[in-house]
Amino acid sequence: MQLASSKLRWFLAMADFVPVFILVLLSTGLALLVLLISVLFGPRRRAQNATKLMPYESGMRPIGVAQRRLPVRFYLIAVLFILFDIEVVFFYPWAAAFRALGWYGFANMLIFAALLLVGYVWLWRKGALEWESVDKS
Which H or E element spans position 127? Predict the structure, then answer.
C-alpha cells in the first residue's frame, strides 16, 4: 500500500511537467522537420568551378579581400550601445511599479541613474564616443 501511494504521488508530481515535456518534444520535432525540409528541397552544389564559388556582388567582380578587420572602436561602440540599452530593461519595471516602491524605489533608481551618468561621463572623457579623431593641424 505504501509503495502504491508513493508511486501515485510521483505520477501526480510529474503531471505538472507534462506541458514542459510536450513543448520540448514539439520544438525538437519542429527543428528536425525544418532541417529535413532544407536537406530535401535546398540547393545542391553540383558544379564546383571558380565562377560558381565566387560571391555575387551586383554582377561586379569582387576587388580585394572580402574579409577585413574592423577597428576595435567599432566593438567598443557596440558594447556601449548594449550596455546603455540594457538600462532600459531596468527602467521599465521601475516605472510600472513606481507608486508601489515609494521613496525607497525612487532613491534606488536615482543611485542607478547616477552610476550610469558617471560611466557615461567617464566614457565621454576617455574619448570612447568619438568615432574618428579630428586632426587639428
Answer: none
Residue 114 is predicted with a pLDDT of 93
Return the bridge partners of 57, or none.
60
Instruction: Give the model's confidence band at 49: pLDDT under 50 very low, under 70 low, under 90 confident, else very high.
Output: confident
CATH number for the domain running over 2-126: 1.20.58.1610
- Total Cβ atoms within 10 A of residue 120: 15
For the chain, first and last CA: distance in Å?
Answer: 93
Domain residue spans of the chain:
2-126
pLDDT tens digits for 85-102? 888 888 888 888 988 989
Reported pTM: 0.43
Give the Cα separation of 19 and 109 in Å (integer): 38
Amino acid of residue 68: R
